[in-house]
Specification:
This is Methyltransferase-like protein 25. It comes from Agrilus planipennis. By secondary structure, the protein is an alpha/beta fold. It has two domains: 260 residues, Vaccinia Virus protein VP39 (Rossmann fold), CATH 3.40.50.150; 84 residues, no CATH class. Helix content is 43%, strand content 12%. It is built from 15 helices and eight strands. The longest helix is centred in the first third of the chain and has 21 residues. It binds S-adenosylmethionine. The site of S-adenosylmethionine has 19 residues, from strand 3 and strand 5.
Length: 373
């Protein structure tokens, strides 16, 4: 599919060595930090890696500042500003998230020196506080005027924008790539996608703008994945193989319930996520069916379970086989994006494993560079 397979790197260090050959990164990492209460160990792992690559982009002059789209609570942006004194504009469509980021960053600023053992290195000058990281609420599209947003919110030299996105959900990952290509002042892209459930596919009637496929290569083939495949793409084979996410009985209960719903003509009933752990199929079904007015006896539920009980091993085998397809589907989505970057003349574009897949299953990043000014 790709003309140059070198653009797919299995390891971030290979990419860093290739892109930043002569840079001796002297920036401090967060290894000595205790972020207890401020982020989970998973998030700390992710922001540590993205902090490293962002600093390399900044120190080598590729970028003058960053825009973090889908900034959320500002886990990454706040650390880039506080630890490295780099300007960041965080944009999120959710006002609640923006407010939460402002609140969180204020708290983090106050506690900052306590997090850092070697305080002399990273102490933030008082006058710089609150000016380096700004948050705005805005629903980002390809038509967003980033230049204005940056000028309105950040100060000093903002000529080369680094576009960051950590776990960009829905269409935001693909949209980031279009935004990067379209904006002449954006010189670097680092994007890690999230789930693909809400990725809009080409429906052929072109009723809605679509974000898969992006590349001419797949578009010309009218390539389609469908919802089931997109949902499957977010399954973590690594976690399952690592036994931290064994196929559990809930999935089996859910399958039996589907047969039951079909029997009662509830074909499109949305169960949603059931948070509590259920000890039996009866308990699972009762919790799941709360929203319906189906009147079912325990006997009926029990006999339904007994009918399929013997198929559990076959179900688990099927579940695992299906999960083996997940990496292939995710690769296809990400390679399509890489291909699109290539087709649009962005030759310095790379797909690289950035995170530990057991710690953080959505672990692949698209990194791209443009030479400007
Ligand atoms: C999975 S969260 C990730 C948040 C953050 N980057 C992190 O790693 O914790 C994705 C975020 O993207 C935001 N988002 C989704 N689509 C967006 C859009 N078109 N414009 C701006 N924000 C968007 C959501 O509100 C959400 O906060």
């Amino acid at each position: 599919m790709l003309c140059n397979m070198q653009t797919v790197c299995s390891n971030k260090q290979i990419l860093f060595n290739h892109l930043f050959k002569n840079n001796n990164n002297t920036r401090s990492s967060f290894k000595n930090c205790r972020f207890n209460g401020f982020m989970s160990s998973k998030k700390a792992h992710e922001v540590t890696v993205l902090n490293e690559i962002s600093c390399l982009l900044y120190d080598t002059g590729y970028v003058t500042h960053f825009v973090d789209i889908g900034d959320g609570k500002g886990y990454l942006s706040s650390l880039l500003a506080l630890n490295n004194q780099i300007q960041v504009l965080g944009i999120d469509s959710s006002h609640t998230k923006t407010q939460s980021s402002v609140h969180r960053t204020n708290l983090l600023e106050r506690k900052w020196n306590g997090f850092i053992k070697d305080q002399t290195k990273r102490k933030m000058p008082e006058n710089k506080k609150k000016t380096l990281y700004k948050q705005v609420t805005h629903f980002v599209t390809e038509n967003t005027d980033f230049e204005k947003l940056v000028l309105d919110n950040l100060s000093s030299d903002t000529s080369k924008v680094g576009l960051l996105g950590l776990h960009t959900c829905g269409n935001l990952g693909a949209s980031s790539i279009k935004i990067f290509i379209k904006n002449p002042k954006m010189s670097a892209l680092c994007n890690v996608s999230c789930c693909y459930h809400f990725l809009t596919e080409n429906d052929e009637n072109n009723l809605e703008e679509y974000y898969f496929p992006l590349s001419k290569f797949l578009s010309e083939k009218n390539f389609k994945l469908g919802r089931n495949a997109r949902m499957l793409a977010a399954q973590s084979l690594e976690r399952i193989l690592h036994k931290s996410e064994e196929p559990n009985t809930t999935n089996f209960y859910r399958a039996i319930l589907q047969v039951f719903l079909k029997k009662h003509n509830f074909r499109h009933f949305n169960i949603g996520r059931i948070k509590s752990k259920c000890c039996s199929f009866e308990e699972y079904a009762r919790t799941a069916l709360k929203k319906t007015n189906l009147n079912i006896s325990d006997n009926e539920l029990r006999s339904m379970y007994e009918l399929y009980e013997g198929d559990q091993n076959a179900f688990i085998a099927f579940y695992l086989l299906r999960c083996y397809l997940a990496p292939a589907i995710e690769s296809l989505i990400l390679l399509d994006r890489l291909m699109y970057l290539n087709e649009n003349g962005i030759k310095e574009s790379y797909l690289v494993q950035l995170f530990d897949p057991i710690m953080s299953p959505r672990c692949y990043g698209l990194v791209a560079l443009k030479k400007i000014g």
